[in-house]
Amino acid sequence: FSLREVLEAFQRCVTEQREVLLEPYLSGWRGLIRFLQSLGTVFSFISKDAVAKVSLLEERCGGGQGEQYVSMQSMVRHELEEGAEALRARSDSGCRTVLRLHRALRWLQLFLEGLRSGESRTSVVCTDAYNASLAAYHPWVIRKAATVAFCALPSRDAFLEIMNVGPREEAVAMLGEAIPYIDDVYSITEELFAQHKLLDLP
C-alpha cells in the first residue's frame, strides 16, 4: 500500500468540467484495497466486495463500450438510456457497482479523517465511521461482527506506518492532503447519483 499512489490517483480523478474519470478512480480504489488487505481479515468482508466491484468496472471500461465508461457522468448517461426501470433491474450495472464502492468510500473517508485527527482510539474511529456510513446497508449479523472485529485494530501509530510515507508527521500531513481530493470525488458522485435518483439502486 502506498498513500502517495492513492493521493495521486484521486488528484487525477476530477476534470476541469467536474467530471469524475473512472480510470484514476479505480486506480485509487486498487490502492485503498491494498490498504484494507494489509490490515488482515478484519476488513476482508469489505475488501473482497470492493475487489469484485473494481473488477466488474474494469471490464466495463475495457469492453466494447469502453468509451461510454470514461467518466461517472458518461456511464450514468449511457446506462440511463434504456430507462430507469431497466437500470434498476440490472444487478451488474456500472451505476449499481459504483454506488457500492461510493458507500464504502464514505466509510474510508471518515476513517482516514479520524486517523488524521487522532482524537480517539482507532477502534472508536473505525466504529463511528462504519456506523455513519456502511452499517445502514449491512444486515445485523455483519454489523455485529464488524463492531467486534474493530476492537482488535492496531494503534494509530501502526496505521500511520502502514501508509508507507515515512515518519508519522509525514503520514498525517499526506492524509491531510489526500482527504480533500477523496471528499471532492465523493461529493461529485453523491450529487450526480442524487440528481438521477440512483442513490437507492437495489
Automatic annotation (TrEMBL):
Cellular-component GO terms for this entry: cytosol; endosome membrane; Golgi apparatus; nuclear outer membrane; plasma membrane
Q: Where is the Glycolipid transfer protein domain?
A: 21-164
- UniProt entry keywords in alphabetical sequence: Cell membrane, Cytoplasm, Endosome, Golgi apparatus, Lipid transport, Lipid-binding, Membrane, Nucleus, Transport
In which domain of life is the source organism classified?
Answer: Eukaryota
Q: Name one GO biological process term.
A: negative regulation of interleukin-1 beta production
Quick one: where is this thing mainly located?
membrane
Q: What compartments host this protein?
A: Cell membrane; Cytoplasm, Cytosol; Endosome membrane; Golgi apparatus, trans-Golgi network membrane
Q: Which residues form the signal peptide?
A: none
Q: Which reaction does it catalyse?
A: N-(9Z-octadecenoyl)-sphing-4-enine-1-phosphate(in) = N-(9Z-octadecenoyl)-sphing-4-enine-1-phosphate(out); N-(hexadecanoyl)-sphing-4-enine-1-phosphate(in) = N-(hexadecanoyl)-sphing-4-enine-1-phosphate(out)
Task: Please list the GO terms describing molecular function.
Answer: ceramide 1-phosphate binding; ceramide 1-phosphate transfer activity
**Protein's membrane topology:** Peripheral membrane protein
Which protein family is named in the record? Belongs to the GLTP family.
Q: What is this protein called?
A: Ceramide-1-phosphate transfer protein
Source organism: Vireo altiloquus
Report the gene name.
Cptp
